[in-house]
Amino acid sequence: MSQHHDEATSRIFALDQTQRQRPLPGKMEEGQKKVQQKSVKAGDGGAMSEGARLDIPFLQGIWESIVAKDQQCLTHFERSEAKQDLMGDNVLAASAPRTLTEVALNALNKVLDRRLQQQSQVSILQVAAAKSPMYNDRDFRIMFARAERMNPTKAADRLTAYLSYAIELFGQEALIEPVQTTVFTPIDEQVLRAGWIQLLLTRDHIGRRILVMEDLGPGDFSPPNKMRVAFFLLQAAAKDDDSQKMGIQVVLQVFDPVNSSLLNRPSIREQFRRLFACSPVRFSAIHICVGEGMCSGTEADETEVAASTSSRNRDEEIISCVESLLGVDERIRTTFHSGSIIECHSRLSFFGINPDTIPMTSTGRVKLKDHEKWIMIQVGRDRAYQQGRTFPIVECPTNKQILLVKGRHVARHEGNMRLRSLLQERYDERNIATRAQKISITSEVLETLQDEGYTFLVKNNADFWVMPDRKTVLEKLAIAFRTVPRLKPLSNAKTS
């Protein structure tokens, strides 16, 4: 079965890559241009190596030597896939055929069944098989198959580690159903609302969710509470089908070396290493944002650099901590950004992340507005689940959803750009049509988009995304047609 799986995977991914990364569209700010120029000077602007590149020469050399060793045990396909993940080019991950998923799921089922039969003593798998409705759930297992890119043995390891860690954090109740906000203690809620770890309500340019962490959490929060909250957020990210297929982007910000849990708390680092290893969603790209005061800068005076032994030691310490935090699959998908908060966030735009969505101000203050909104959605969904009700709110629009609201912020949304293109194609025809013909053309536009897999969203009175009825969509499309003469061409939408 393993050989069949490998052959199927090779056939699927031997296809030519026909689509490329679309960098974050929009006009580049002046400060961002300076960041790009500085990055090019340091080596960021050139061709990427097969490992993650850094914009700090000294750190770059250390990290790439580590990544080079990691890559020695990988195939050419695995190295290429890691590079595509990091740069947002792995469009095939989102389009893996159902047959490949079924092959991987069947292989995972056989591995789990075999392990269950071979274990003589009571194991986590035996406990889960006896008590956990989730354990045999198809969707639950698919999460782990996708997280390990259809490798059944690794998927079984990850699933087993996930169940074990869930019991350790939440007790055996975690086997009954996914962790919900209802199991949080008051301290857990405080840790959650602090916003040091946030799952953004926006996506990157190819539709991946984005998890942002302020270091490994404040030092005054106890490790168990932090791990319970982080576990919950990763579980929430894994509910997203696109994230299961393509993984998520992770932004880890380390701007305060004195109080850094990453650098100063080995026990916390070990707990997060365990959590990352059993995450039900894979990390397809990791960005470590490091304050400029923590590293040997690229433009420092030569005498200053020569005298900065402690800074070099800190560089090595950062590398060592990150290396111990991440596994091989994560390390080869990791890149560093150094400088001020604004500079680090600006560099994220080259990886499809809108800097404006990062919940941290230029002074280091954590933004909580969107995070509080996200928490409201989780609480509402959990309450609806407990009461047996459906939950109509859409947490985070996908690239296959069209946002029927006003505002420049939605103009560059992938679904809205497709709508704009179609409206422009049919505008002249509709402009000279009769009233009845206009209604017919609007309906045809709706049906075309639905055939392409698009759905529509509007904001409700509480400012949450919901799906409208057909009548509302047709009314919104008719209004959208009137704006076509004012729409500017999309020729400048892509930047290199």
Characterise this structure:
The protein is α/β, with parallel strands linked by helices and 496 residues long. Among the domains are: 181-386, Phosphatidylinositol Transfer Protein Sec14p, CATH 3.40.525.10; 401-486, no CATH class. 51% of the residues lie in helices and 9% in strands. It has helices at 2-13, 30-42, 57-71, 76-87, 98-118, 124-131, 138-147, 152-170, 186-193, 223-238, 241-246, 261-264, 266-277, 302-306, 309-325, 328-331, 341-347, 369-386, 414-431, 435-451, 470-482; strands at residues 197-203, 209-214, 248-254, 283-291, 334-339, 401-403, 455-459, 465-466. The chain has a 5-stranded mixed β-sheet with strand order 1-2-3-4-5. Strands 6-7-8 form a 3-stranded mixed β-sheet. The radius of gyration is 24 Å and the shape is globular. The model is unreliable at 1-55, 296-300 and 491-496 (pLDDT under 50). This is DUF6824 domain-containing protein. It comes from Nitzschia inconspicua. It holds the Pfam family DUF6824.
